[in-house]
Specification:
By secondary structure, the chain is of the alpha/beta class. Helices cover 41% and strands 16% of the residues. The longest helix is centred in the first third of the chain and has 19 residues.
């Protein structure tokens, strides 16, 4: 039976570190404050927003929601972000994505101040990751995956790690983080040939295709460590990861559950970066 790599304990450890930093900041009359920019009333966004606000309240971070109509013009969104950039009381800015199709996301990414870019949208912050500088802001999901690996003392140096995702949000920055730990990294994707042969030979496999229960037994072996980043609904409408958890947990070495794995750490990473932004002011 696999060791279940639960995210709750990881998130708790991160929050404990944050609380100490927040107490130190309070002595200097600094309160970390997150600005949440939400366009429209997508139920998923609202649910995520509530979760963030609840977590902020629990550890002493202020949060402010800036809700705008889903049909807002790019220019109007730029104006809002520039106001938040100038507001000394705002430590970090989170813009919910994906943005509506009519919004020019590239412009928005470049508008957010790099010093307040806690979701790592700005090209300058991404560039730092690709240059091997891991001390600044990082994309939250790959950073959450790395924190889980670190917490459970999973060695990466010299290990073969396969990342099944090539996006700038997950796969590519995660590959840079893994390389920084001296892992040997292979990036795969939905069009990779003989994917099961590649993943089966790996020590660690990070799956992030967004296809519920796509990865079954043939993709892994009894020594496999599976980090599941995928989140989608299965045929029964149940929240599921990319890995077929029920079939894999009896046979692989270690696996993260969905829910309760990487996703449960992601919000803590985001908030830790709000605290970092406040410390850097």
């Amino acid at each position: 039976m696999a060791e279940i790599l639960k995210g709750k304990d990881v998130a708790t450890q991160i929050k404990e570190r944050m609380k100490k930093d927040i107490e130190k900041l309070a002595k200097h009359n600094k309160i970390p404050t997150l600005a949440i920019v939400r366009l429209g009333d997508n139920p998923g966004d609202i649910s995520y927003e509530r979760s963030i606000i609840k977590n902020c309240d629990n550890i002493g971070i202020n949060s402010k929601v800036f809700e705008r109509d889903v049909n807002i013009k790019t220019e109007e969104l730029i104006e809002l972000i520039e106001e938040l950039n100038k507001d000394d009381n705002i430590s970090g800015i989170l813009v919910f994505r994906p943005l509506p199709n009519h919004i020019e996301e590239e412009i928005i990414r470049n508008t957010i101040s790099p010093s307040k870019d806690v979701d790592c949208m700005h090209p300058l912050n991404l560039e730092r990751i690709f240059e091997g500088d891991m001390d600044g802001f990082a994309p939250c999901t790959p950073k959450a995956a790395m924190e889980i690996l670190k917490y459970y003392n999973i060695p990466l140096e010299g290990k073969n790690v396969v990342v099944v995702n090539r996006s700038m949000v997950v796969g590519k920055p995660l590959a840079m983080m893994l390389l920084n730990e001296n892992a040997t990294v292979t990036i795969c994707h939905s069009r990779t040939k003989n994917l099961d042969e590649i993943t089966n030979r790996a020590d660690v496999v990070v799956v992030a295709l967004g296809k519920a229960k796509y990865f079954g037994e043939k993709y892994f072996n009894e020594k496999s460590i599976v980090i599941d980043v995928g989140v989608s609904l299965d045929e029964n409408g149940k929240l599921s990861g990319d890995a077929d958890y029920d079939k894999l947990s009896p046979i692989v070495n270690k696996i993260t559950p969905v829910p309760g794995g990487v996703g449960s750490v992601t919000t803590s990473i985001l908030l830790s970066q709000v605290v970092l932004a406040c410390k850097n002011v």
